[in-house]
Design goal:
8 helices, about 80% helix, mainly alpha
């Protein structure tokens, strides 16, 4: 676990060195040792928030969804977060061809994996609902990491970089809306009814 913490710290504080150090490894290894544990942070934080609300504000149990619905929603949110990593990696892999970059799926997965670290770590803010708007800073830093990694790993030309970032940003939001809309809408409907 300490290796994971050191890697996250390196990505957040010195991303250029972190991305150049990672050259070996497999997608399966990165997924099991990096993506799966970090994607749990927002899920655990939201569950703890729910439990704190029940414990410290007992009157809110009339307004909160049932525990089984929250658990189901948390598991689905975790699965969707992992799906988004693979879909974004596929998007970068395909987009790189249009911007004269050499990229395989493994490189794209590494770039997405590293760029989502601020969002996963920022997911801990869900523990305190009044701090959730600070996740916008994590989103901005995530896009900054994409900028760094694209220039370092893929070698996208400076004149194509802005277009690539805008296209990636559009793909990011569309993929998130589609995945969360398709899978999360039935969960929300179940919680409300």
């Amino acid at each position: 676990m300490s290796a994971l913490v050191l890697k996250v710290k390196a990505i957040l504080l010195n991303p250029k060195e972190a991305i150049t150090l990672e050259t070996t490894g497999s997608i399966q290894n990165w997924f099991l040792n990096f993506v799966a544990p970090l994607a749990l942070i927002p899920t655990i934080a939201s569950l703890l928030n729910y439990l704190f609300m029940l414990l410290f504000f007992p009157a809110t149990h009339y307004y909160l969804p049932k525990l089984e619905d929250v658990l189901y929603g948390s598991v689905m949110n975790y699965i969707m977060g992992i799906m988004i990593v693979f879909l974004l990696a596929g998007a970068i892999w395909q987009l790189a061809q249009y911007y004269s970059a050499v990229c395989d799926f493994k490189q794209a997965f590494l770039i997405v994996m590293y760029s989502l670290v601020p969002l996963w770590v920022g997911g801990a803010l869900q523990l305190f609902p009044f701090l959730v708007p600070l996740q916008l800073i994590a989103l901005a830093y995530s896009f900054y990491l994409i900028y760094i990694f694209e220039t370092e790993k893929l070698g996208i030309a400076k004149e194509n970089l802005l277009a690539f970032l805008l296209t990636y940003g559009l793909a990011y939001f569309v993929i998130n809306l589609l995945v969360r809309g398709i899978f999360f809408n039935p969960i929300l409907t179940r919680m409300i009814v």
